[in-house]
Amino acid sequence: MFGIDGSAGCDFDCPVIRKRSNETISDGKYKWYHNEYGTTFGAKVLGEMITNTIDPENIKAVLATQFNDFDLGNRYEAFYPLFGDGIFTLDHQGWSRSRGLLRPQFSRQQVSDVTKLEPHVQNLIACLSRTPTESVDIQQLFYKMTMDTATEFLFGESVNSLQLTSAAEDIPEINRMSKEQITAVASSDGKQGVAYAFNYSQEVVAFRVMLQSWYWLMNPKKFRQSNAIVHRFVDYYIDKALDHLRQSVETKKHDEVVLSERYVFLDALVEETQNPKILRDQLLNILLAGRDSTAVLLSWIFYLLARHPRVFEKLRTEIIDTFGDVNSPGKKPINFETLKHATYLRHVLNEVLRLYPSVPQNFRVANKDTTLPRGGGADGKSPVLVRKGEKVFYTVFLMHRRKDLFGDDAEVFRPERWAEGNTWMWEYLPFNGGPRICLGQQYALTEAGYAVVRLLQEFDTLENKDLPEKEGVPSKRAWLTMSNANGVRVRLYKK
Ligand code: HEM
Asked: Domains in the chain, please, with CATH?
């Protein structure tokens, strides 16, 4: 219920001031507060009233029915140096224009082409096969694979970071690199440098978001340098695409060029706008929205499969029965439609996104005095006031684990629950809802489904290789997306 008057320095696991930590929203005090104070409660943190909710009705109000009463808050300022004016950072007309520009590029035809994924899955399989007797942090490899597939989809050329990876290698994060190493990256146009730079800049951005109105404190030189590397990389492809368009117009072969080539997001976008800044910002916004969210989904899938051999076997049986294995082709080819109809695969994906939603927590800021439908009054069933400028935090991670919504075994990984005729709507929100619902949902599910099918065709054995002391509740790292703080150490091989 509403109204805990915590003050500055109170023992409140405040998402606004929380530092980088492995103890996150999910298992710690945040859960305790919801257990103690109900599905919607207010807390004053550093003098600021924050409404916290895991109530589907309130989340629906924020994201859909009262969409116009809420904005993104200071996301724009925090993201601006790297991501500029894009769909992910803008509100109101700017957002609506961005969405109108980008939505057609996510039509089914565009996102359903799985052939472009295959070379990158091959690279991943090569990494895993190189040292079959050793364990790998498969999370690191998924981050690379989704960087490779996203750059291919967006720019028509991949950074191919997996090609440079040996399976056992752990990638040093740029913020742990020496000054000399950073300078080398900054002065290099190498694609590997771009991947490092993007990772580093994104971490700084996530930190700026947490600092809220103090975001400007976090603007180190390294951040500016690394933003410049990323911008140079994207601008290179934009110049190429614009030249291409100009030449095709001059030679009047425009239609031919556009129709005959394989789909590249950037090429389609230059048909709509030739403004290099708009192009760069929107492309980087999509890279941000799409890359890590899919990488962490894949990582949690393998984290859970490695601990649930029954599910692994059942899933592999469906995959081999439907799609065959490396030696014998199956009944169906692997494509958008067949992946969608692989029932158990779909249930596994749903269940992983329920327990480990890639974006576990989010917030909006009221742009006028407004109310949420539930959480007020003695019984918590009356509306709640949210004043202009106040934040509403919604935590889908905890909502997805509510026993009253998902049953007594809500904390258990059980894909079969998706075959039991339940119709969860606003109770289940891995891709958000309302006008800002994820544009890449189909693309993400196709990519994740494809990677799972190909890996399970190739390998028949999955072993959990995390250290025993790391077992139990996994340690999570929730920045913009939620990854496993310890990585996901497994052995995936053919017997
Ligand atoms: C498992 C993978 C994914 C998950 C769980 C996911 C989830 C989400 C969520 C929760 C949001 C809402 C964020 C907010 O409003 O604050 C969002 C927005 C968005 N996502 Fe995804 N996403 C995934 C993959 C992708 C991919 C692969 C792409 C593109 C290739 C993509 C493109 C977008 C875009 C453009 C938005 C912004 C929509 C808007 O504000 O209008 N997403 N996604």
From this structure: 1-73+358-399 (3.30.43.20), 84-357+400-493 (1.10.630.10)
